[in-house]
Amino acid sequence: MLLINHSNLVLECGTDEAGRGCLAGPVTAAAVILPKDFKNTVLNDSKQLSEKKREFLKPVIEEDAVCFGVAHVFQEEIDSINILNASILAMHKSIDELSTKPEYIIVDGNKFKPYKDIPFETIIKGDGKYLSIAAASVLAKTYRDLYMNKIHEEFPMYNWRKNKGYPTKEHREAIKKYGITKYHRKSFRLLPEQLKLDL
């Protein structure tokens, strides 16, 4: 698949998030402005890359990018405003972190809210089409994974180092056995047969 730099006319940032479907931990977003001549043959949508390749790409993107920003929105806020709004908020916060203001924003997916007065475009499967969105997807995923590895130490029985908070069979079994932690999203259906959770 050929990933391209979307625009040579404006300062454009790509943005994407990771962790939307997780039962625990934050939703994490990144925004990246790449130089116009940026090329990389390894870079792709982070879901298509092995953890090793993502780890390899992270410092390459950080070094070569014009600028980048990363932001977490945590479980309390996800529960309060819902995951879609939290994902968009995380993307907005990651754009806030950019040291250079973008003139145009390209977003992975089909949902976004206007950011200041900057024009934007939503692109379905954009992380597989445009380099800046692919770069953002890699940073969002690697920064979120680092965070999940850190909180794994506190609650190793959920094995977040491996499942990163996603609803794997093992993660659900641990919830069944140990209950939930402060990192779990209480608004999510944490167990398939769950009607309500005793909090």
UniProtKB/TrEMBL annotation:
Its EC number is 3.1.26.4. Manganese or magnesium. Binds 1 divalent metal ion per monomer in the absence of substrate. May bind a second metal ion after substrate binding. InterPro entries: RNase_HII, RNase_HII/HIII, RNase_HII/HIII_dom, RNaseH-like_sf, RNaseH_sf. The keyword Cell inner membrane does not apply. Keywords: Cytoplasm, Endonuclease, Hydrolase, Manganese, Metal-binding, Nuclease. Its main location: cytoplasm. Signal peptide: none annotated. GO terms for biological process: DNA replication, removal of RNA primer; mismatch repair. It is found in: Cytoplasm. It is an enzyme of class 3 (hydrolase). Residues 10-199 form the RNase H type-2 domain. Its cofactor is Mn(2+); Mg(2+). GO terms for molecular function: manganese ion binding; RNA binding; RNA-DNA hybrid ribonuclease activity. NCBIfam families: PRK00015.1-3. PANTHER family: RIBONUCLEASE H2 SUBUNIT A, RIBONUCLEASE HII. This is Ribonuclease HII. The gene is rnhB.
